Amino acid sequence: MTTIPARGRTWRRRDRRTQLLIWAGWLFAVSLFVGCFQLISDKTIWAFVWDAPTQAGDLAVRMVPPDWPYIRALGRPIWDTINIATIGTLAAVLLAIPVAYCAARNTTPSVGIVRPIALFVIVSSRSINALIWALMLVTIIGPGVFAGIIAIALRSIGFCAKLLYEAIEEIDEKQVEAVRSTGASGAQVTAYGIVPQVLPAFAGISVFRWDINIRESTVLGLVGAGGIGLELNAAITQLYWTQVSLILLVIIGTVIFSEWVSAKIRHAII
Amino acid sequence: MTVATTFLRAWKKPPLIKSVWLRWSLVAGAIVYLALVYETTPVNWTRVWEGLPRGAAFLKAFFPPDFFSRWDEIAEGIAESLWMTVVSTVVGIALSIPVGIGAAKNIAPAPVYYLCRAVLAVSRSFQEVILAIFFVKLFGFGPFAGFVTLSFATIGFYGKLLAEDIEDMDAAQAEAVRASGASWLQWINYGVQPQVMPRMIGLGLYRFDINFRESAVIGIVGGGGIGATLNTAFDRYEFDSAAAIIILIIVIVMLCEYGSGYLRRWVQ
Questions:
Q1: Distance between CA A117 and CA A258 in Å, rounded?
Q2: Which residues of B touch A49 (CB under 8 A)?
Q3: Considering only alpha carbons, which residue of chain A is nearest residue B258?
Q4: CB-based contact A108:A102 (threshold 8 Å)
Q5: Of B41, B47, B144, which is closest to A49 when you measure between CB atoms?
Q6: pLDDT at A89
Q7: What ipTM was predicted for this assembly?
Q8: Which of B219, B222, B198, B233 shows the shortest CA–CA distance to B139?
Q9: Which of A168, A238, B79, B167 could form an SS bridge with A104, CB 3.0 to 4.6 Å?
Q10: What whole-number distance in Å separates Cα of residue B241 and Cα of residue B233?
């Protein structure tokens, strides 16, 4: 049996060029990271950072035990928070349908004019955080739950419309063609050819966004838009740390509950 | 003739929810809920109505956006947000790898699993702004608090998705690596990592987007970055500068999204 002489060469996964490129990529990434960290570090008062563990310990001691009787005052704010998320999501979903319809390449009335407008609506709604929307809306329509609902709705339109239009673009055209070939009108084609195909995705998107919105709506109160954030802000400003810890526990509970509900619903749909 | 009657029946769309009882109780529940919300949510319609012209004036104050009179502060804020995003995405992902591995049921022992899941639940439950309030208290104002906030929030997001991805992996491949006598680290590196890597790179880029967007709001509570500049602009009633900042945020988010979409296609 003859063996091939090894000639001192060992097996390599990549050739030299690729290997060098990968090294260069890593070098660039690491220096970028170090450079950015350096810039942050220049703006930091490190004495405060080294002091942080002591501060954290101090805060933790003040937060325990949670002020349990205070929970009676939290029922209403948490109900408001859930309503902001639910009604806001509902409004967003209803508004997202026409936007998605106009943004999807295969259903849009005009690729040249309507589609860019719809895409612009989606991008601007997605880029501006609910808190910034709330900040503006509180000035315009006054503080309260209503401003929170609108803020959540405006923020969620882009998200829902984006996922929905991607779902519409991925539908099976043959089914649409089949419905059209029976002589259906445009509206009928939409109702029987497109809607049934995107309905499960649509329901999943709505529940997913609702879950995110529960979390988002917990902070809207900080700028005056109602919900549990108002209580949190008040407790922090008045340094009632035992109330703060109870509010945080309630928020964790609500978020975990909403996550469980949305997982159940999505499981049932898909 | 009896046969004809069956032909004359019109076709009806099958209902979405098959059980009649469940369908109607869902409808009834929704109506009751909406009525309750309507009853308990005070909307001061006169205030809303009064606010509309004010809103129009407010919007008018945004135009034309003024990029120049506060350009130095805006540029500094944007740069600060970008550094914060880069550093916190990297650190957050690095920290979320051990947590994510620990939170995967199929490879972590029970105590580690529950501990890591608890970390993820806490990190995911709190919106970035709430975290930022506390971190600003601990670390003082400025980008460092923002960096810690975003890193911590990244752990919750990335760790959970990583854990789910590991739980969905093909056990046979990992088993094969283990059967060759690999140590635990080698097993993770050659049996698990290649299976989750492509999706996790995409998610890392996606998290970069999110971190930039969030960095625009944590400044409102003192976490540094463009949010602080935006908040100052609002406080000074310089709405034209605020409009410029918002436009810049939108443009950068769009660039990030296009860039990361391109990179993701290139990687996968």
A1: 34
A2: 139-140, 144
A3: A123
A4: yes
A5: B144
A6: 93
A7: 0.79
A8: B222
A9: A168
A10: 6
